[in-house]
Write a structure and sequence with these properties.
alpha/beta, three-stranded antiparallel β-sheet, 19 helices, about 40% helix, about 15% strand, Acyl-CoA transferase, transferase, CoA-Trfase_III_dom3_sf, transferase activity
Length: about 400
């Protein structure tokens, strides 16, 4: 990596106190870290609940590793007064605090925005909850699965028979983290320009709805009828040795597809005259394509259709994606090492020049407690007292 690319760290010097758990909040803080910020991850004695989600080993999970890579880990028990005083001291030397408790929890802990602002007038507080901080459902617990169901995402992604079906990843959590990271970046810009802080109220509900703006508006305009394909043909088709994805955005592209497949007559077939006609006859057209693609290899069709100007590409698994020549050329997967998971490929962060393989792995619970306390100005006697009392823990 050349020197010029390593200098793009717009949030260099920004100090983030990440009290959030799970994926959405930690990933938002991770966005800032990948752009140069220093992030101190604060966890309770029982740890971030994300540590036990999915594949887990020795207090780490795939979720917690991805969302906390490169952070400093500190363990503080905010249930007692000493622990809360530690957090207040840390707030005093931070630029931004991230939390994902239910509305009212920070206030009950004596760490609400008014308190944080009195300690640090320019502080930015980012709060992520399931349903926001006001309204009749504000105190309801929210999770990715619940919000996929509640916001219509599961219905939008339903089966051909109309049964709702959740997207097979934590899509709501991830997109909430991305929207939150964007909003926090704007707040940091404002803070740097004016010294003014603010409290950002972010929710899984709002982020999930914004993410679905196009299909949602389309549904409203169609009176709630089942979504039609946006463009036809569009889908995954079996070739002789694997699947490829094919999409035609315009009539010209469909005509090019027809010619490449040896069926130029399709261009003048009234059933396929334009996208609206092809939508009405989608099953017929897709059946025709399904009868042709198995006659050649996937690579043959991808090369032929790309030469013709038709959008297409392989249907990859994660394993085959890892071997994709374009992924390799752009260095989109970096091999990293973790003490409990060993070596594995880590996706590059878009737009950031900070690479995962240049950063330390996600921390163990309380791994950097003593170092973080020293950095915040705690004396050695204070640190010893905090560890002895159980207000803080060092791994």
């Amino acid at each position: 990596m050349n020197t010029a690319t390593t200098q793009f760290k717009p949030f260099d010097g920004v100090r983030v106190l990440d009290m959030s758990q799970g994926l959405a909040g930690p990933y938002a803080a991770q966005m800032l870290l990948m752009m140069g910020a220093t992030v101190v991850k604060v966890e309770p004695p029982q740890g971030d609940w994300g540590r036990v989600m999915g594949l887990a080993r020795n207090g780490h999970s795939a979720l917690s590793v991805i969302a906390n890579w490169g952070k400093k880990g500190i363990c503080v028990d905010a249930r007692n007064e000493q622990g809360r005083e530690v957090i207040k001291r840390l707030v005093g030397c931070s630029d931004l605090v991230m939390e994902s408790f239910r509305p009212g929890v920070m206030e009950k802990l004596g760490l609400g925005y008014d308190v944080l602002k009195s300690l640090n007038p320019g502080i930015v507080l980012g709060s992520i909850s399931g349903f926001g901080r006001s309204g009749p459902h504000a105190l309801r617990a929210g999770s990715d699965s619940i919000l996929q169901a509640a916001t219509g995402m599961a219905a939008m992604n339903g089966t051909d028979e109309g049964a709702p079906r959740r997207v097979g990843m934590l899509a709501v959590d991830m997109i909430t983290g991305l929207y939150a990271g964007y909003a926090l970046s704007a707040a940091i810009h404002e803070q740097r320009a004016s010294g003014v802080g603010r409290h950002l109220d972010l929710s899984l509900l709002g982020a999930s709805m914004a993410f679905q703006a196009m299909p949602m508006v389309e549904s409203f305009l169609q009176g709630g009828e089942k979504r039609k394909p946006v463009t036809v043909p569009s889908g995954n088709f079996d070739a002789a040795d694997g699947q490829l994805s094919v999409v035609c955005l315009r009539n010209e592209m469909f005509h090019a597809l027809a010619k490449a497949l040896g069926h130029e007559e399709w261009a003048t077939d009234p059933r396929f005259a334009d996208n609206e006609a092809r939508q009405r006859n989608v099953d017929t057209l897709h059946d025709l394509l399904a009868g042709i693609f198995p006659t050649q290899s996937r690579e043959y069709w991808i090369n032929r259709l790309n030469q013709a100007g038709v959008l297409c590409g392989p249907v990859n698994s994660y394993s085959s994606l890892r071997e994709d020549a374009q992924v390799e050329a752009l260095h989109l997967l970096a091999d990293v090492d973790h003490p409990d998971f060993g070596a594995f490929p880590f996706p590059a962060f878009p737009g950031a020049q900070r690479a995962a393989d240049e950063l330390p792995p996600a921390p163990a619970l309380g791994q950097h407690t003593v170092d973080a306390l020293r950095g915040a100005g705690f004396a050695e006697a204070e640190i010893h007292n905090l560890l002895s009392s159980g207000a803080c823990m060092q791994a």
